[in-house]
Please model this.
Amino acid sequence: QVQLAESGGGLVQAGGSLRLSCAASGRTFSRSAVGWFRLAPGKEREFVAGVSWSGGTEQYSDSVKGRFVISRDNAKNTVDLQMNRLEPDDTAVYYCAAASRIYITVAPDSYDYWGQGTQVTVSS
Model:
């Protein structure tokens, strides 16, 4: 079992930055790939970024590539998402998720554990 809790969301102006953090508990977290997803009103859940179990591999959606950076610290059981140059289209509830696998997948159904989400609102 893995429990996840996101923090760091808030309201920011376009062009600004936010750092989201996902804190995990559970023995298997260090062997889990972790993804960040977002859900905006009227849209489907979208893969944003993912990191492999070791942190050695990262993957980003085209919409955030070059602006967001994912990182993990297995000693602290945390995965962070640094979001820069935020745009109004980034407004959504952001979720972190852990998979029972070591490599990244973009499919939400492949993730077994989810946090409660944190709201990010970007004003224009």
Summary: DSSP finds no helices and eleven strands in the chain. The chain has a mean pLDDT of 95. The radius of gyration is 13 Å. The first strand starts at residue 3 and ends at 7.
